[in-house]
Amino acid sequence: MTPSTAGPRPAARPRLWLTAFSFQLPALLLFGLLVLLPILYALYTSAFRWGGFGAPTDYTGADNFLRLFQDPVFLGDLWRCLVLVVLSLAFQLPFALAMAVLLNQRLRGRAVYRMLFFAPYVLSEVVTGVLFTMIFAPGEGLADHVLDAVGLTGLGGGWFSDRSTVLGTLFLVMTWKYFGFHMMLYLAALQSVPRELTEAAIVDGAGPWQRFRGITLPLLGPTLRISVFLSVIGAIQLFDLVWVTTAGGPVHSSETMAVTMFQYGFKRYQVGYASAISVVMFAISLVFAVAYQRFVLRRDLAGATTTMRGGGR
Amino acid sequence: MRRIVRALSPHAVLVTVGAVMAVPLLYAVLSGFKSTDQLSRNPVGLPAPWVTENYTGVLGSAGFWRLVGNSTLVAVGSTVVVVAVSALAAFAFARFAFRGRELLFTLFTMGLMFPFAVAVLPLFLLLRSMGLLDNPLGVILPQAAFGLPVTIVILRGFFREIPGELEEAATLDGCGPFGFFWRILLPMARPALGTVSVLAVVGSWNNFFLPLLVFNDPSWWTLPVGVQQFQGQYAADTARVCAYLVLAMVPALAFYSLAERQLVGGITAGATKG
User: Fold this and answer.
1) Could you tell me which residue ranges the ABC transmembrane type-1 domain spans (chain B) (predicted)?
2) pTM across the whole model
3) Which residues of chain B make contact with A304, given a CB cutoff of 8 A?
């Protein structure tokens, strides 16, 4: 690197740009080649009937997409995605919040609980999935034995192998694995709530519920919104856990978009059609992400993007 | 009386939830100490007698250690790449006001929202055409690429907090941009680098989709792929699968207990620094 003899700012402008850009170059290459290019390539191949070998030649325009939106399995994927999102927002996140509030108090063993609740997040989806296929094995798994022991024989049994219970079972496993992650986010936010605020509220005679509604919840707002966002994106791309536990079965009743895509792309060699699924998944997450940013996260991000030094233009 | 109920109930709730969380793990550990025959006769209680063959069998197999080795190689490789490349990029985002910065940064933050599953099929085709199947680089590079957004966002946040006077002082002492980056910024940002490294290691260690597709050759399989195959192979031998599963959990849990603070710090920083 040559020592800088030129004056600081004005003369150095083009060189500044060049330096900044050269710092960015490796990241841009990696990101462009392995993240953006594949997404564009999927867009291209989704317009072909193509088995994945040789160059795609059988151009079919939007046919794959038309077929997709008449495919009961794919429509089912969308429905199941929605069900999992609703279940997560209605049960998993409130549960995580409740646990965070509990653990935010001074309690004996708090650190141990925190470790224990968060630990499943560190395990891989595969390990979790295999563990719970054994626990929910009909008749012989731990879950059925526990139900037997408390006199609820016959209540279990189906779990992953029954069309009517498989999604619920999957949701239980998802909650076991992921609620700790959301709880940690909330805990971090709770710990930054200024203590004077709660103390003042106590002095004013606010009960625990009022304090929660009036202080904690509003201050947690930004974190809750991020956690909802991550939860939805997670449901859109759910694959590992499903693949290991049920592979989408029985009869597609736990299939997700990513599983359907995998089936067509890697098992049935209908790569053009599978690309169309990728594109739709991408479109859904993009529309959701942009809309969410625009309408929900807006106020949270307002400060973050405008406080940069100098300003971009 | 009311006071006792009040003081007790959070504990009661936590103990219950804690039990639900711990039981699956304990079940796996204990089942690993049973024979499969014993497991079917005595699925819930303590092992009687304690059988250690399942665990010693897995620990004595070369296959298991190769999986651990492969997972380590892939995790370390992708972590080094993603942290190095992100640090350079985050430095430019944090310290330079250059044209197009907002646009580029938006591009990377958009990456936070792209499900990996979306790109995996075309990515596979691309890797195949580049001859990177059955090559660790075929997992390391994409893993690093998909880790860029979150790493850049977190590091940029940290880099911005380092005072500008420091940069001026370094410039006066004859440091160029790279010299400042290398000799001053990176050493100062060591905690932040640790945090993003832990996130990257955990992400890579647990990745299943990519190694499943890229590695056809069993000698390259990583731990998650190996666990899935092992379960398929020994489906009838439940106790042995349990032992395998427990041993596959150990590295992740050990790493977690060592790096808990960094991991949690990274997650909360990643989620709140937009």
Assistant:
1) 68-259
2) 0.89
3) 273-274
